[in-house]
Amino acid sequence: MELKNWILLTALAAVWGSAFMFIKVAAPEFGPILLVALRLLLAGCLFLPFLIQKKYLVHLKSHFPGILVLAIFNNALPFTMFSYASLGSTSNMLAILNGSTAFITMIIAYFWLNEGISFKKIGGLILGFGGILVLVNPSNGSITLTSSIFALTGACCYSISGTYIQKYQQDSKKFVLIGWSMLVGGILIAPLALFNLPTELPSTNSILALFWLGIISTGLAYLGYVRLIENIGAVRTSTVTYMLPVFGIIWGAIFLDEKITTTILVGFIFVMIGVYFANSKVKAK
């Protein structure tokens, strides 16, 4: 892989890893639903000047079913789940639990895509869920049980959308799917946001966090994501999963003064080993 692609991959992991920190900052003041609506609308507006170009606009009608699925399961629902989870969790815990997407995908792909599961993948599944049990146990003061459920639900949504793309949208224009799904996701959740407005104007830090989430972590990052898929393929691009929790832990420790406890470290190691084995290749059944 060329150096420029390594740089882009690492930058993508660093930016996505920072999202959990900014969610932690902005969600309490904006409220989870309004934060997600504004985040998606900002990101969608960033894509819009490209999407209305004729070469992309002609695909809107044919891609709309896929756009709607991704708008819900890749954007509106998981973003909302992680925003709610942030109210009772440190940002590093959110990043680690997000890493469980890989082996949850393995389970869904087994039933939905008829993909085989090797002993190595089964080992990864056991290790990964062992790590989750370590992280969500009541003695871990870094996250509540409710927030754990929200975060894992969000990870499940990402797994569903990823498997859906692999099964039904492999030959689709990914730029069209991803770009429109953000805008549609924001539009879908906007009516709910109107009933969940904050009682006070959010602080400057929260507003800046929103703009980072919408423009950088979602908008520009997904532009980079599409570029990477075009350059190195979806499989290699998916390795960002390994690096994202690492950056989530680093940013939380540096900027939010979040402690990296033994429980978090052990859970993180188990989850990452599980992710590694869960991503092992195996021939289809």
Task: Describe this protein's structure.
The model has no long low-confidence stretch (mean pLDDT 89). α2 (32-51) runs antiparallel to α9 and α5 (91-98) packs antiparallel against α12. The chain is mostly helical and 285 residues long. The chain has one domain (3-278). Helix content is 80%, strand content 0%. The chain has helices at residues 3-30, 32-51, 54-57, 60-85, 91-98, 101-112, 119-136, 145-168, 174-194, 204-232, 234-237, 240-255, 262-278.
Please give the share of residues in helix: over 70%
- Total strand segments: 0
Report the structural category.
Answer: mainly alpha
Mean pLDDT: 89
Strand proportion, as a percent range, falls in: under 5%
Order of helices and strands: HHHHHHHHHHHHH
Salient structural properties:
13 helices, 285 residues, mainly alpha, 0% strand, 80% helix
Overview in brief:
With 285 residues, this protein is mainly alpha-helical. It has 13 helices and no strands.
Task: List the SSEs and their pairings.
Layout: H1 3-30, H2 32-51, H3 54-57, H4 60-85, H5 91-98, H6 101-112, H7 119-136, H8 145-168, H9 174-194, H10 204-232, H11 234-237, H12 240-255, H13 262-278
Helix pairs in contact: 1-2, 1-5, 1-10, 1-12, 2-4, 2-9, 2-10, 4-8, 4-9, 5-12, 5-13, 6-8, 7-13, 9-10
